[in-house]
Design brief:
The structure is a single chain. The protein is of the alpha/beta class and 203 residues long. It has a single domain, classed as Ribonuclease Z/Hydroxyacylglutathione hydrolase-like (Metallo-beta-lactamase, Chain A), CATH 3.60.15. It is 24% helix and 31% strand. It has six helices and 14 strands. The strands form three sheets. It has a six-stranded mixed β-sheet, covered by helices on one side. β2 and β3 (23-27) form a beta hairpin. The longest helix is centred in the last third of the chain and has 12 residues, at 157-168. The N and C termini lie far apart (34 Å).
């Protein structure tokens, strides 16, 4: 498994290019489609998926342009974040046809890998974490030392704490690849992230 991370857009969204066995997934193409396409041209393989951890504009802005350039690529988003046509915060619906929806427990093959979907609401109703091997692509649910905001439309403090607790209780250590800022690992977050710890203490 090879992972390339690039920061895109005015607030530095982490976009990930995941490749295994010549199969590629783009995770959270938040902006700058041209830059993303340049990286994809340098990456050997076929783009199978565009995978979205949630539907906010800073994670989806490049999707329509990428879809035009890569029309055979399947785009996945949770249903709860796919219905915001005309809304600035959730702009994707209505711009792209044939959106695919994934939910808790769904899996997608990528080369020798399996992408497993964990529904982790709180930052938005349709936020998901993507588990791939020893990596967690956590979107805006879990950050290094922090967590996503819950004061936007559809956010819930109680739900994000439950989601954080669930992630913290996963067995083993995982690389944490969040939607913004630095990467981390789950053992570190269990020690230093007060929000994750609070979530883990709740039943």
């Amino acid at each position: 498994m090879k992972v390339k991370m690039m920061q895109v857009g005015p607030i530095g969204t982490n976009c990930y290019i995941l490749e295994d066995g010549g199969k590629i997934a783009v995770i959270d193409p938040g902006d700058e489609a041209g830059r993303i396409l340049e990286v994809l041209e340098e990456t050997e393989g076929t783009v199978e998926y565009i995978l979205l951890t949630h539907g906010h504009y800073d994670h989806t802005t490049a999707v329509p342009e990428l879809h035009k350039a890569l029309p055979e690529t399947k785009i996945y988003i949770h249903q709860a974040d796919a219905n915001g046509a005309g809304n600035h915060l959730f702009p994707l619906a209505g711009q792209v046809e044939d959106l695919h929806h994934y939910d808790e427990g769904d899996t997608l093959p990528l080369g020798s890998l399996t992408v497993t979907v964990l529904h982790t609401p709180g930052h938005s109703p349709g936020s998901v974490t993507l588990m791939v091997g020893d990596a967690l692509f956590t979107g805006d649910t879990l950050f290094a030392g922090d967590c996503g905001r819950t004061d936007l439309r559809g956010g819930s403090w109680e739900e994000i704490l439950a989601s954080l607790g669930r992630l913290g209780r996963l067995e083993g250590n995982f690389h944490v690849l969040p939607g913004h800022m630095d990467t981390s690992d789950l053992d570190t977050e269990r020690k230093v992230n007060r929000y994750l710890r609070e979530g883990m203490e709740r039943k």
